[in-house]
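Open question from group meeting: does this chain pack into something compact, or does most of it stay loose? Before anyone orders reagents, we agreed to write out a predicted structure and look at it together. Recording both the input and the output here so the notebook holds the full record.
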Amino acid sequence: MVNFRPVLFVIGLVLSKLALFMYVPTLVAFFTGTPGFLEFGQAVIITHLAAFACLSAGRTKRFKLSVRDMFLITSLVWTIASAFAALPFVFINHISFTDAYFETMSGITTTGSTVLSGLDNMAPSILLWRSILQWLGGIGFIVMAVAVLPMLNVGGMKLFHTESSDWSDKSSPRAKTVAKNIMSVYVVLTGLCLVGFMLTGMNLFEAINHSFTTLSTGGYSTSDGSMNHFSNGAHWVATLFMFLGGLPFLLFVSAIRKRRLNELLEDAQVRGFTYLFLGTSAVISAWLVIRDGYTILDALRVSMFNIVSVVTTTGFGLEDFTAWGALPTTLFAFLMMAGACSGSTSGGIKIFRFQIAITLLNKQMMKLIHPSGVFVQRYNRRPVNDDIVRSIVAFGLMFFITIIAIAGCLSAMGLDPVTSISGAITAVANVGPGMGSVIGPTGNFAPLPDAAKWILSLGMLMGRLEILTLLVLFFPAFWRR
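Structure tokens returned:
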């Protein structure tokens, strides 16, 4: 059975930290004299009270978490935190709780889909809160992908439970050290991104917001025009830091600790991600030059920005890539699901799963040629055991079943096929914009029915938690003794 006291205690801790981060936009509203001070103050009080209630109810002398507890905590923390983080949107923007929850879930899962418009004239406090949510969601997912999911054997993440990333031992100081190192890299890269944006013409407020949402591969902007509102230089800076956000942060830590850049360059997943990015960029750039008459530099800038934005599931908008023709649209449909590296801030299927599928195919071909032969499946010079393969197969199957189920529900509500299918993909893969005239790169999710927004919110959460983490809660065996 699940032990609910420690579950409540952890939820209380998370809510208490969430309330502390709410103080930042509260102070911004107070010192700038812009709307939001009283509204954020109300949200802070409510969140603190809920945190205190959970901490009081969950306090226990023996604090021990089982695997079941961790499954439940992982799902409940994201679900409940989103509910309280949605309060400022209700109080300030006067939108329904459905829209506020959708916006918050999209932010904290770093999806980037939005129901809000008029961002250029919106209160600075709420714009900053959107960016903070994505920044917190990015680092939260990195820690979860490194510390929690491997122990739960979710989606093949156990592959990265190696000596360099093993948090399962009883040495809590080691776990804290790894967490601090990852956070340090995350903060430093955010700062460098901020400086880069300011050098390209953004003011301080714009640079802070976009550095938060770029490195977290979230995609929220302070303008309805997204990155079209800013200079070409800002596009190049965003391209660089979206790419960095798609790399495994644990490898950043390892490379810095050993002072060897090769730690990144020698990793099979990083190489695969880089080849995918450069290869598709070359194809789309050539297409834009030949078909649409772009200059080579503009074609590279626009194609590389859009490709890295989609493949890292950031979702920044820069031109409507669905208007470029059949080939780019087909490639982008694949990139929406592909994702970047495991242990990064991005969503999607992740590159390592495709690579392991290829090694599995190669092993099967060799078995057909040499039936009596013994072949060891390897990845990154390490053997891949059957548990990892089964986890990857289960994840892949449920990833597509989830997309089909959500697309079916959206279609049943009267949405057109392009909106239904691309909406399901963009939610489960945590990309942001979909395709079509409604939710495409220049569109918005506000026109969708409330029921569709709740279904897409569930899809975003399932995609962020690697599907199986949430799905296991619906099995009766999970709740039995």
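Observations to bring back to the group:
Residues 7 and 73 are 6 Å apart (CA to CA).
Confidence is low (pLDDT under 50) at residues 162-173.
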